[in-house]
Specification:
The protein has helices spanning about 1-10, 25-50, 55-80, 85-110, 125-145. By secondary structure, it is mainly α.
Length: about 140
């Protein structure tokens, strides 16, 4: 059941990073809903599989998510003029994944938002969790013209 819920939340975040590029009347509402869903999906992955407290990690993760969104827009804005669009998007997503993984490694090492019986996590384990949560965004960003 947990896995199904994570898949559903990740599927709802299809438009998370592609949304600023998309046009439509509900663009802003979809953007905030998709950010909440993507942050929720990663919070659930971290809480169910890696021992983070979901009520503590979610607000902290929303802040990190909005910060990485700004970084994503800066990377795309600076690289889109010199590189193809797909390369700018992939570079922006990789920057997001590395920033989010580094932040998670930091809070894991400092035992912030962690359960009492949880162990310290390796960088690769956290990288895989963040990559899975952002994989849908990468695919959708590349598919939207």
């Amino acid at each position: 059941m947990k896995t199904i819920l994570i898949i559903l939340l990740t599927a709802l975040s299809f438009t998370a990073w592609a949304n600023p590029i998309m046009e439509g009347p509900f663009r802003e509402r979809l953007f905030f809903i998709s950010i909440l869903c993507e942050a929720g999906a990663l919070s659930m992955i971290l809480s169910y599989f890696h021992g983070f407290d979901p009520f503590k990690i979610f607000p902290l993760w929303l802040f990190v998510h909005l910060f990485t969104y700004i970084v994503f827009l800066l990377v795309i804005g600076s690289l889109e003029e010199t590189f193809p669009r797909w390369m700018a998007i992939v570079s922006g997503e990789l920057a997001i994944i590395l920033i989010e993984t580094s932040f998670l490694k930091l809070i894991s090492d400092l035992n912030i938002c962690r359960g009492k019986d949880s162990r310290k996590l390796k960088f690769l384990t956290l990288f895989i969790a963040v990559f899975i949560a952002n994989l849908v965004s990468i695919i959708v960003s590349l598919l939207i013209p």
